[in-house]
Amino acid sequence: DATRALNLMQQRIRKQLAQQSRFLAAVSHDLRTPLTRMSLRIERIEDNEVRYRLRQDLAEMNGLIDATLYYLRERDDAIGPRQRVDVLALLQAVGDDAQGIGQDVRLSGEAAPLLGYPAELRRAVVNLVENAHRYGGAAHIILADSPERVTIDVCDNGPGIPPAELQRVLEPFYRVESSRSRATGGVGMGLSIAADIVSRHGGELKLSNRHEGGLRVSISLPRA
């Protein structure tokens, strides 16, 4: 009886969470129409400063919606079977794309391919590289291999994160004050999405402050 009661409770909780996710996704999607109208009306404003500030607000709102929809959809949708991923080639492509838009990205190390979700891994690393560029001005990707796991470290030379905040920044929409604030352009979802992707690979994402300064975000992916 206790087992049946627990199973029923779990089913109800899953159903309620799924309904909440679908509701939030629907609301986020429906916000697109009024935001588009607002964007068109903003262009009619003659005051350049006001128009600029309103554009910034709209860009932030659209960023929040994009991140929310991605986070909800990727948690709910199946992402298919794992594929053989050439991790080194994937990281080289991420670095080339980042350098193509003026970001300072270096890559060192190598690793043999592993099984995973290539598009998801790329998304996770891109998020970390963008964070490193935004808060530290540059990113150094360090790839390491072993028989048991592949490790991807993304390091920056920024201010780091207060030790008490290292776990909280993995929560959706959470941002550290001061240097890692809304003014820098982040919406507080990049690390959450990356951590969720790594978790679905059976891996772990950890944050630590470097002794020489800056932040190290380490992705550990098991080979099994």
> Class by helix and strand content?
alpha+beta
Question: What percent of the residues sit in helical stretches (DSSP H or I)?
Answer: 40-55%
Distance between the termini: 37 Å
Global morphology: globular
What strand order characterises the main sheet?
Answer: 2-4-5-7-6
What's the helix-strand series?
Answer: HHHEHEEHEEHEE
Write the layout of secondary structure elements.
Blueprint: H1 2-30, H2 32-42, H3 48-76, E1 83-85, H4 87-100, E2 105-109, E3 114-116, H5 118-136, E4 139-145, E5 149-155, H6 190-200, E6 204-209, E7 215-222
Parallel strand pairs: 2-4
Antiparallel strand pairs: 1-3, 4-5, 5-7, 6-7
Helix pairs in contact: 1-3, 2-3, 3-6, 4-5, 5-6
Describe the overall structure.
- The chain is an alpha+beta fold and 224 residues long.
- Helices cover 50% and strands 17% of the residues.
- The longest helix is centred in the first third of the chain and has 29 residues, at 2-30.
Summary, kept brief:
Helix content is 50%, strand content 17%. The protein is an alpha+beta fold and 224 residues long.
